[in-house]
Design a protein that fits this description.
The protein is 62% helix and 0% strand. By secondary structure, it is mostly helical. The protein has one domain. Helix 1 runs antiparallel to helix 2, helix 2 packs across helix 3 and helix 3 runs antiparallel to helix 4. The chain is globular. It starts with 36 loop residues before the first helix and ends with a helix.
Length: 152
C-alpha cells in the first residue's frame, strides 16, 4: 500500500498518490560522510596509484611522488563529496566534478602549475573529470553495489 491507502503501481517505483520520483530529492548531508575507513583507505590507494600512472603517462616521472600524494589525498576527499546513494552514472559525475576541481586547483596553485596557460589547465580539468567519472562509475556499479547486496 502506498501513502494515503493507495496502492503503488509497478511503474519503476513511482507512487501515483504523491507523484514523487525516487532519488529526485537532494541527498541528505549524512549520506556524504557514510564511508567506512576501509573504503576511504582503498580510495586513497587507488588515487595514489592513478597519480603515479598519470605522472608516467604525462612524461613527468620526476613528479611521480607529488602526483601520488595529490591522488591519494584528492580521491578520498572527492569520495566524501559524493553521495552514497543514487545511480552509478550520477555518482560518477559528482565524483568526477569533485576530483576535477580539487586536482585542478592543486595543479594550478602549486609549483610550475602557476606558469601553465589556462587552456592547458582546462584540459587537465577535463582529464581529471573523465578519469574520476569513469573510475568512480565503475566502483559505484561494482564494489558499492556488491557491499549493498551483502549488507541488505
Amino acid at each position: 500500500m502506498g501513502k494515503g491507502g493507495r496502492e503503488q503501481e509497478s511503474d519503476g517505483g513511482m507512487d501515483r498518490g504523491t507523484m514523487e520520483v525516487p532519488d529526485s530529492d537532494p541527498p541528505k548531508l549524512r549520506e556524504f560522510v557514510e564511508r567506512s575507513a576501509g573504503r576511504l583507505l582503498m580510495e586513497a590507494i587507488l588515487g595514489g596509484s592513478a597519480g603515479a600512472i598519470l605522472a608516467v603517462a604525462l612524461g613527468q616521472e620526476e613528479l611521480r611522488g607529488a602526483f601520488m600524494v595529490a591522488g591519494g589525498l584528492a580521491a578520498p576527499l572527492a569520495l566524501m563529496l559524493t553521495p552514497v546513494r543514487g545511480a552509478p552514472a550520477y555518482r560518477g559525475v559528482r565524483y568526477g566534478l569533485a576530483l576535477s576541481v580539487l586536482l585542478t586547483l592543486a595543479v594550478s596553485l602549486t609549483g610550475p602549475g602557476r606558469e601553465r596557460p589556462v587552456d592547458e589547465l582546462i584540459l587537465f580539468a577535463f582529464l581529471f573529470f573523465a578519469l574520476g567519472a569513469v573510475g568512480h562509475g565503475v566502483m559505484a556499479a561494482t564494489v558499492d553495489r556488491r557491499s549493498d547486496d551483502e549488507g541488505g
